[in-house]
Design brief:
The protein has about 200 residues and is an alpha/beta fold. It has helices spanning about 40-50, 65-75, 90-95, 125-135, 150-160, 180-190; strands at about 5-10, 30-35, 55-60, 80-85, 100-105, 135-145, 165-170, 195-200. It has one domain: 3-Layer(aba) Sandwich (Rossmann fold). It is globular and about 40 Å long. The relative contact order is 0.15. The protein binds S-adenosylmethionine.
């Protein structure tokens, strides 16, 4: 597979290319961010515009959102952003080396509120352990949700898998340089939002 591709659509059949050298994507930029489930791309776009010397990789499995964000990134001619189309757990497990990212951003993951659907949730112990593996030693997760039960449950999973809670509030942590589409909607609706920062320990 050609390593210089800008945007890479990966489906299950392509995962056999997991020897893909992801390091070439970052062009050796030192600080590396990963956003999981970037939706319409508002957050990754705004964040990467403000941190143009840092590298941003986004993962999204909705084709519609992925393509929309590719168009936005193209428009701004951003050199420090790459996007992957696919399922986050599979991509994280197969593609990324240990101790690679400085920050993982997870904003408003689908809550799957019904108990019988809980297993569809993105954040579970295996996923959290993978995030720990790909983060550098002082790496951090920025995690936000409007759904209290999922939020608290996820924080507890992160703690069990080797993260310490550094920030917990209904106001955004100061390092958050953008809001997301969902976040803006929830704010308009007057919903309470839960923000956290978890540090690899
Ligand atoms: C509720 S939306 C939030 C979107 C965006 N983060 C925001 O706050 O506006 C959740 C997003 O995560 C994506 N998503 C959910 N599970 C995923 C997975 N396992 N792998 C990749 N993307 C996922 C969905 O397609 C959707 O775009």
């Amino acid at each position: 597979m050609e390593l210089e591709e800008k945007y890479i659509a990966l489906d299950k059949s392509l995962l056999r290319y997991y020897s893909y050298n992801i390091e070439n994507l970052s062009k050796k930029m030192e600080i590396k961010h990963l956003e999981i489930g970037f939706g319409n791309g508002e957050y990754i776009l705004n964040f990467s515009l403000q941190k143009s010397d840092e590298f941003f990789l986004g993962i999204e499995y909705s084709k519609k959102y992925f393509e929309k964000t590719v168009r936005r990134i193209e428009k701004y001619k951003l050199k420090n952003v790459k996007l992957l189309h696919g399922e986050a757990f599979a991509l994280v497990s197969f593609l990324f080396p240990d101790n690679y990212f400085d920050f993982v951003h997870i904003n408003f993951p689908d809550p799957w509120p019904k108990k019988r659907h809980n297993e569809r949730r993105l954040i579970n112990i295996n996923f959290s352990l993978e995030l720990r593996r790909i983060l550098k030693d002082d790496g951090k997760i920025f995690f936000a949700s409007d759904f209290e039960e999922y939020f608290l449950n996820s924080v507890s999973i992160f703690k069990k898998s080797g993260f310490s809670l550094e920030y917990l509030s209904n106001s955004p942590n100061p390092e958050r340089l953008s809001k997301t589409k969902y976040e803006n909607e929830f704010i308009r609706e007057g919903k309470k939002i839960f923000y956290s920062v978890l540090k690899k320990s």
